[in-house]
Structure formats: C-alpha cells, structure tokens
Amino acid sequence: MKVAVLDKNGKDTGRKVDLSKDVFGIEPNNHAVYLDVKQFLANQRQGTHKAKERAEIAGSTRKIKKQKGTGTARAGSIKSGVFKGGGRMFGPRPRNYSFKLNKNLKRLARRSALTMKANDNAIVVLEDFTIDTPKTKEFTSVLKSLGLENKKSLFVLGDSNNNVYLSSRNLKGTEVVTNSELSTYKIMNANSLVLFEGSLEEIEQNLSK
C-alpha cells in the first residue's frame, strides 16, 4: 500500500512510501484489539475505592431488641447494613485491576489497529519537521493544513522531539507520542493517525517480528 508523503503545509512532496503488508495489511483480529484496549483501560484504574463494612463501623455492640416476640425480623447489631448509618454490605474494596497479555497478542492487536486505520484511509504520512521554539500557534497551523483541526489526531514521532510535543500539549483532541508510547488504545481512539516519516521504519521493524 503506497501513501503520499506530505509536508507540514499539507502539500504533496512528490514522494511515496510503501506501507508494509505485514503491519498495515493483515486480517484484523477484533478480539485481540478488544483485549489490548481492555488491558490499557484497566491499567489506568487506581483501584483505591473503599467503603466501610459492618466490622469497621463505630457503634454499640449491644443487641438492640429481644430475639423473639417483636413480630419483626431479628436484629443483633445497630451496625448492620440494613440500618441507617450501618456498614455497607458487599462494598468496594481496594484491588488491582491490571492483568497480563503476552507480547505476541499485543503485537497482533497493534497490527490489527493499524490495518483498520489503513483500510479507513485514516493514515497520513508526514515529512519529518521540527519547531524551533514551542509554539501552539505553529502546531495549530499544521493541523489546519492537514485538515485535522477539529478531529481527534495522533501524531507519532520518529525520534523524541520536545518542541513538537510541547507545542501540541495544550490542544484538545491532539496527542503526540513516540514509537515506544504507541498503543492499540491510542490508535483506535484517534480519528486520524499521522505518522512522521522517520517513525515508519521502527514501527514496521517492531511489529513485524
């Protein structure tokens, strides 16, 4: 699959790059994508939720009424969850939501996500550029040139470029990452995937193993 290389002004440079079929042209595995996205979101959860249960509530331990003869249900403690101010029954406890996936499945998920974007013509290959000083205005002009001003977009850098990253940080819906930060969730969450020309070789090398 050949894709034209654009410059930061959105103009065709006259060059084309060939996207690897092993990375951008496979049969997508929807379940692998689902699992990888699920793991990513699960890993974001802090799991610090906690509610006090019956044993943790401060209150009297006396039996609040006699066992029989009241005509109502038996009750042995004011701290029971059926009474106002009592403990919560089966309340949330701190836990770790993360789980593991093997490397081959995660690699398959990323290849599947990239293939889906390629099939939707949602991949833009951009000529490598840099920004002398961090300026949001300059990065906004790049978005306008590419027609991505009001779309969720993910820019993938070939090498770490701090000025480009800082220039995009204040823009809602736009994210700049390096190859090592590229995840299935981020690919699927973006409407358009903008690959810097220098990032292609490393992406294909990492995912074609």
List the helices and strands and how they pair.
Layout: E1 2-6, E2 12-18, H1 21-24, H2 30-44, H3 103-119, E3 123-126, H4 136-146, E4 153-157, H5 162-168, E5 174-178, H6 184-189, E6 192-196, H7 197-207
Parallel strand pairs: 1-3, 3-6, 4-5, 4-6
Antiparallel strand pairs: 1-2
Helix pairs in contact: 2-3, 4-5
Describe the 3D structure.
Belongs to the universal ribosomal protein uL4 family. Part of the 50S ribosomal subunit. One of its GO terms (cellular component) is ribosome. This protein has 209 residues and is of the alpha/beta class. It has two domains: 2-45 and 98-207, Ribosomal Protein L4, Chain: A (3-Layer(aba) Sandwich), CATH 3.40.1370; 49-96, no CATH class. The chain has seven helices and six strands; from the N terminus they run E-E-H-H-H-E-H-E-H-E-H-E-H. The protein has helices spanning 21-24, 30-44, 103-119, 136-146, 162-168, 184-189, 197-207, and strands at residues 2-6, 12-18, 123-126, 153-157, 174-178, 192-196. The chain has a six-stranded mixed beta sheet.
